[in-house]
Each structure stands twice: as structure tokens, then as C-alpha cells.
Amino acid sequence: MNRLADATSPYLQQHADNPVDWWPWCDQAFAEAKRRDVPVLISVGYAACHWCHVMAHESFEDETVGRLLNENFVSIKVDREERPDVDAVYMTATQAMTGQGGWPMTVFATPDGTPFFCGTYFPRPNFLRLLESVTTAWRDQRDAVRQQGAAVVEAIGGAQAVGGPQAPLTADLLDTAATQLGREYDETNGGFGDAPKFPPHMNLLFLLRHHQRTGLVRDLEVVRHTCEAMARGGIYDQLAGGFARYSVDAHWTVPHFEKMLYDNALLLRVYTHLWRLTGDPLARRVAQDTAWFLAEEMAVPSGGFASALDADTEGVEGATYAWTPAQLVAALGEEDGRWAADLFDVTAAGTFEHGTSVLRLARDVDDADPAIRARWRDVVGQLHEARNRRPQPARDDKVVAAWNGLAITAIAEFNQVADSFGPAGPDEDSQTLESVADGTFGAMRDAAEHLARAHIVDGRLRRVSRNGVVGDPAGVLEDYGCVAEAFCAMHQVTGEGRWLESARGLLDVALARFAAPNGGFYDTADDAERLVTRPADPTDNATPSGLSSIAAALTAYAALTGESSYREAAERALGTMAPVVGRHARFTGYSAAVGEALLSGPYEIAVVTDDSAADPLVAAAHRHAPPGAVVVAGPPDRPGVPLLADRPMLDGGSTAYVCRGFVCDRPVTSVDALIAQLT
Known about the structure:
Largest sheet: 5 strands, mixed
Distance between the termini: 65 Å
């Protein structure tokens, strides 16, 4: 029987009608394999994965495949987003055996979970042959199979080990990392590497912070060029905002169309801070539209943000998003249709499949004449309405704790920066910015409340929820780090002490249950389910690593409270990463960004005021804050806000207090004096 119908994961539910007798990941599945003396198939994927859908349609919906699996294996389906610990262990094994990884991931293991053969996507004929070969090997070459598995476990145990040399994450190492990124940067297309090209959000955030500390123009050039290239490319949704997962080419033209919450949260932070530091109108527009995309397209009614929008629509990748010149004319009329085709580079030959094109911005609109901008906005609105009448991609509406933490932090920073700029003028752009800030604040608040209410159970964090109901999988280190950092951000934007208390609770669990003796961290708790190895990967991948995210949260919490033990824990954690940052900058962007915050101070900025929403000192603090700075504002001695304690208003007026490393400058009451202390 198929046991996936009651799963909380949309990905597992997609397989609930397969002729395969699927089990979810559980002890009972391995016990059944042991009872039957058969190997285990562990199939790992996620709901928005295009090739997962292809393999499901070709193989897992096939009666012959189902019969072979049911007769000779116990089959376990895993959502990698729900169980990142399971995914990490078997992805390491897959990479060790094949030299590469990806999803769908296909692993054959013994009844105790030891992997002995790993791969990714297999076409149906290949998969059928593989099933027969594994069945024969299990029956006739059992000792060789077990020896192979033991060798794999030994290899991945070494790869996942916590330990190694430590050193302070110094300015010299961060300078080396920035220089390395500058050398590896794609001067023509922006970003790093060749096709497929992924948005390098964490590296860009690090470079922005490095530029702010050092003033190096090269850092800013890399960020501006990459951000403009992505924003004008097909990887960015020119009609509704939001970024696709990656570009299949080197020049950002054709995306893999799935939209992931974590990419958009991290990119929102990058464009927000690029706008903050430069005033760039393109960065402002993309930050604004990405924030709105999160609130409008990804927020779920029960609170929180959905995980992803699918790459496929009714089984066809990109069907919702691609256009022909004739379709533009049909939606806009002859004149505007031709104008839009030129603006968005839609040609008869096409840039995608079957003569269709992905919209990319071939002309500058952000600095264009107001009449051109008005026409562009009108065309975008009409095309968006026309696209909404097409079939739409499915949404994976499970709420992942870590990714929601990233989104909350990004939206908090966007709102702070938007408020710091204030209304730009009477045009529709400034009015839109104000409405976007208001709408996104509500979605951010609802998500944070949902995490605090539903995901924290008996003081421990759970990984996922759906329709307001929390699932069973325990939170991993990245969940604790990203949510704790988000709660620190909520403390800053609301001035409420409860968020700081919640952040501390999560950090204390992380230090007690996840910490390694050398100052590093494991990705799972010491009382979590035992896997064949205990995962501990400190490098950043699609999201910040557990280590870098917990270091970020520890750093913010220490700055907000003055409790130095949390800062020391962050420094020890980053000390385990220092040798890696200096050699592999592209895979340590978030650790390097946190390192910049620690090197900067981070600054602790408190503004005592009766009107934090409209106080120009608060706006100046957000606009000019050094890397990783924390900012709180409110009346003196507000309960639960340590940075406002014992800090009076001078002469009855608003007053700013700036500290760094627990050493404070003199309080100031003018914007100019505050800016002088921050720059």
C-alpha cells in the first residue's frame, strides 16, 4: 500500500497515487526492509523540481516499475526541504560515489540505511535495468554490496566531520575573499561561473558589506553589474517580480522557472542594501517588487510564506511565462505589442522553446523619460493581467522555518530602508513604495507570529508546517539560526521585548544541543534521530549554512543585549571557517558577511524618541548603518529593550546613542552628528 496520502509534504502527496508502495521516512520502513531482507530505495526530491516530475511520470507512475519496486524493495520517499538532514547525508554519499549531485536523488541502501549505490535522474529504461541489477547484486553478491556501503559511510563520515584548524576571521582573510571573488567574477555577464548560473546572493551581500568597510570600488562594481544583469534578464519576472531559481545559460536569459522562497528573500536583502548605499533606482524597483512578490504570491493564509512556485504548468516547464510576438499583439494591440516585443526582446526566433521567448528588459526604463515609464507600467499591467488568465504553476505551500526566517529578516530590512528614504515625491512610484512597505510589514508580522506560535513546541523548533499545523520533523541548525536572526529583526522593527526572549531561547538550545567541542556546530541536535552519519556542512549552498546562520543570529543577539558570551560563540564558530573563507570564497559568503559585521563592531544604535516612525534620527540610523549594525528606537527605558535602558532624552528631545564593542560615543541630537559617528 502507498502510505503518503496523509503526509504534510506536498511533494510526498504528489506521489500518493503512484503504484509504488511508498513509505515516508520512518523507522517502520527500515524495520520492514529488515523483516523482508530486501534493500531500500530512498528517493529524494521536492515539489517544485522539474526533473523530479519527469522521473515520477516516466517511472513512479508506471505499473511495471511499481511492480518491480514493490516485489524487491522497500521504497521511501523523502522531501529534501522537510528533511534536510536526510538529504545532506545521502547527497554527500551521492557526490562521493558519482562526483556530482542533484534532484531527484536516487539511493539504494541496506536495511540499516547504509547507502551502497547512488545516482540522480534515471530515464525509465535505465531505471528498469538498474532495479534488476541491484536486485541481482543483493541476492548474489551481498558481501560485496555491504563492503561497498561500508566504504561509502567511511568516506562521508570524513566529509561530514567537525574539526580542523581554527583561526580568527581577520580583515586580511576577508580582503582575500573579496579579491578572490573579484578574480572569479564574470566580467561580461555578471555573477560567477558558467551555465547553469545561480544568483550569488550571499556573496553579493558580503561584497556590499566589504565595500562599506573598505570603500573599494571593485566590490560595488561587481554587485551593481550582477544585480543589473539579473534584473534585466529572464531569471527575473519582468511582470510580477521575483526571481527564478537559476539561469540555464550564462547570461541570465532563460531560467529554470521554479521560484524559491529562500532565493527571493536573500536577493531582497541584496537589492535593498544596494539601494540603501547607492540610491540606485533599478535596485529600488527590484527590491520593492520582490518584497511585494513575497507578500502577494508567497504568503499563506495561516501565516508564513510558501516554499516555492513550481517550474512546470500542467507538465510543461515555463508555459505560464513565455511569449511570442503574436501573443504580445493579441494582449496589447498592434502598436503596443510591437513596442513591448522590442522592449522585452521577444523575437520570431524566440529565446526559449518552440519560438517563444522569456521576457527580458532590453531597454533601460528606470532612468527613462516619465512618458516612457508610464507606458512601460501600463504595458506591464496589461501583460500581467493576460498572463493571469493562463494556467498557473502549482505552489508548494508548506512553511519551512529557516526560509521564513530569511524572508522575515529581508522584509524587516526592506521596511527600515524604505522608511529611511521617505516619500520621494508625488508620483505613483513613491505611493507604491509606501503601500508595498505597509503590505509587506503585515505579511512579515504574520509569518513571525506563526513561527513563534506553531513551530516552537516545548521549547524546540519544528522544521515545517502546512495549513497552520506543524509537522513532526525537528528543526535543524539552519532553522534555529535563521529564525533566531529573524526574531532579532522583529525586535528591532517592533521594539517588543518578547522577540528578543524568543531569540535567546532558540540560541540557548542551539548552543546546548548542536555545538561541537571545537567551536563549530553539527546540523542536527545531539538527541535527534541517528542517521548513518551526523551531518555537519559549514559551507553555504543555496541557503546559508547552519553554522553561518547561527553565527549571524548570535552576533545580532549579542549586539542587542550586550551579552558577550553569545558574541564569543559566534567568533569561535567563524574561527572554524576562517581557513575555508580564505580559500573558497564562493561557498562561504554568509560566513564572510557575518565576519564583516563582527569586524565592524557591529554597531549598536539606540534612538530614544517619542515617535520612532517619523523621527529623522531613526531614518538616518537605518540609512547609514555600518555592516551588520543593530538599530532600536523608542521611549527611554522601554521594557524588554536593553539598548534603550538608562538612556535619557537630552533636553527633552530625541537622542541617538552609538556604541561599538560595548564602548559608546557621546549621545547626539542632530542628524549630521549621528551620520558623522556612523561613517
